[in-house]
Structures are given as C-alpha cells and as structure tokens.
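We were asked to recover a plausible sequence for a given structure. The inputs and outputs are reproduced exactly as logged, with field labels preserved.

PROBLEM: sequence recovery
POSITIONS: 329
GIVEN STRUCTURE:
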C-alpha cells in the first residue's frame, strides 16, 4: 500500500485537510462495444493513505497586560493551544520567565507554573470544585485531536517593591512529542510516526509554537468570578455525587477582586437570583462573616430577589468573598 504525502498551509485554527490515515481508493471503468455487445472492463484499484501533518498554533488570549500588585500571587496569563495538524498529537509545554525588554521577571507561582483548563468553569480556577489541572511535564502532556484546542494558563507570583507601571513578560513554548518533529524543517518526512502508524510530515510551523503575554504593575482592575462551592441534594448527597433536582441546595461563592493601584469608588455588588431558585434566608456571608437580609446597619441586604453588598469606596488591593445559598425550585 502506498502513502500519499501532502502539505497544506491551513489557517491557524483549522486542521490540515483530510484526517490522517484516510484511505483513498480509485478504479477506472472502461466501456466499449465488441460485435454489438456492450462490454466493460475495470482497472486495478489504486489506493493511497493520507499522511499526518504535525503542527500546532498558540495564541495569547489577554487583550491587554494583566494588572497586578507588587507583591502578588497566583496571577494567570491565558493562552490557547490548537492542534492544526490532521491527526491526534501529543504536546509538551515549557514556560520562560527570563525575557528581554521588560522591567521584571515574573516568578513561577508557588502553586505551579502551568495549568490546563478543566472545562468546568471559564477562567483560571485555583481551587474549589472547578479547579483547573496542574500541568506536570511527562505526566499529563495534553493529547489533542485534529482541530481541538485547549486553554493553558501561565500562573505567576509577582515580586515585591516594583515600580508602578513595571512590565513583566512570560512566554509559553509548545512542541510536538513525536520523535524528530519539533523544530524540523517544514515538509520533513517521518516514516511510520503518524497517527495509527501512517507516515507523517512536519507542518509549516515546524511542529512548535510560542507566544508571550505580560503583566503590568499598577492601574486599577476590578474582577469578579462566581462558582458553585457546594451542592447538596434532598437525599443528602454532596459534591460530584449530588443530583440537581427540585430541593437541591446550591452554595454559591463569589470572589470580588480589586487589584493594581487606586480606589474603586462606589463599589457595589448586585446578584439577581434566577426565577428557578429560591434564596435561603440568612445564608449570606461576606469574608466569612454572617450578614442580615434586611436593609440595616450592615453592608448587605436581600431585596427584590437580589443580593446586594455595598462596599463604598474600596482601595486596592483587596479581595472580598461573598457566599450565599439557594434552593432549586
């Protein structure tokens, strides 16, 4: 059986043509008339197998430098890894903190320097039921099908005593783990090393990709994230074993972060509850302290089916955590 080699210059998010291992067969049929009798004859069947193109792309997802404090911990840069080859491929990830052209070097976070999106909740989750996956080289190197993408986070701690406006760069490098692919010239053949043992070719990006993103000290940034911290169904099951049904109690946790430098004036949190849920009275906490539901002396109330927390003028850096419970109707 012969192998058909081809190389396409595909857009970054599109796999290179037919899937690796596709068998393409063709046969010619010839018709003619002999002595008034219609007759046909066929050729042999010509068969080819599509080779694998091994290639990858990587794109930074942060629209601007990520605002940080000095010092700061566990701050994430977001990148998107895409397999632009036409077969399943295994990739290794390497970060680099020592880059020219910046004012400081980010430090690989104490919790780990590279995380893989778990798919449970958008954005980097350092803990809780939707926690993202710590990447360990050689242990959980991502395997991506053709056209598949994966969000990767570079997580850093920020040094102390940095000047306002200082910029720090970190880069992520991705390489194919197929022997001989990474860094080879485009078009390099790799006999028998493709998906399912087909032949392979190195793609236009030499089976490697790299991208750089940045942190900047200072400036005011306000972010909020919401997750379900606990689920308990009417049968008493909790966590991943619980079933969402009428009567199930959901404990929400909201993290509100003011970072950088400056003051967020008139900071207010408002969370209208969906009609499919009912608020559990007296379940609100702010930074671990219980709050009343009424409009009174504390900063919190539950009115018009909405949880309200008034923080007023809030100087950075600070993080507030708000929790409350609802019951599924």
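RECOVERED SEQUENCE:
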């Amino acid at each position: 059986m012969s192998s058909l080699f081809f190389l396409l210059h595909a857009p970054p998010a599109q796999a290179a043509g037919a899937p690796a291992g596709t068998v393409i067969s063709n046969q010619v049929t010839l018709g003619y008339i002999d002595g008034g009798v219609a007759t046909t004859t066929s050729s042999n069947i010509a068969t080819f197998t599509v080779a694998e193109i091994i290639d990858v792309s990587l794109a930074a997802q942060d629209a601007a430098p990520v605002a940080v404090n000095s010092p700061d911990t566990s701050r994430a840069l977001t990148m998107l890894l895409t397999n632009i080859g036409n077969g399943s491929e295994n990739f290794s990830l390497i970060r680099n903190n020592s880059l020219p052209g910046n004012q400081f070097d980010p430090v690989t976070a104490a919790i780990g320097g590279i995380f893989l999106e778990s798919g449970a909740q958008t954005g980097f989750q350092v803990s809780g039921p939707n926690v993202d996956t710590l990447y360990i080289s050689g242990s959980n190197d991502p395997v991506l099908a053709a056209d598949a993408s994966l969000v990767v986070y570079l997580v850093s701690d920020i040094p102390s005593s940095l000047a306002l406006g200082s910029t720090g760069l970190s880069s992520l490098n991705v390489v194919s783990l197929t022997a001989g692919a990474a860094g080879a010239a485009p078009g390099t053949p790799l006999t028998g090393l493709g998906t399912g043992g087909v032949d392979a070719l190195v793609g236009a990006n030499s089976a490697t990709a790299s991208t750089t993103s940045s942190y900047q000290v200072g400036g005011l940034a306000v972010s909020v994230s919401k997750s379900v911290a606990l689920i308990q169904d009417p049968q008493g099951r909790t966590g991943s074993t619980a079933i969402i049904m009428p009567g199930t109690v959901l404990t929400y946790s909201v993290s509100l972060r003011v970072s950088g430098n400056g003051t967020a004036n008139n900071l207010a949190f408002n969370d209208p509850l969906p009609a499919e849920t009912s608020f559990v009275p007296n379940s609100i906490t702010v930074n671990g302290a219980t709050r009343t539901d009424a409009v009174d002396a504390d900063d919190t109330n539950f009115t018009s089916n909405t949880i309200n927390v008034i923080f007023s003028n809030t100087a950075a850096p600070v993080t507030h955590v708000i929790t409350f419970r609802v019951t599924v109707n």
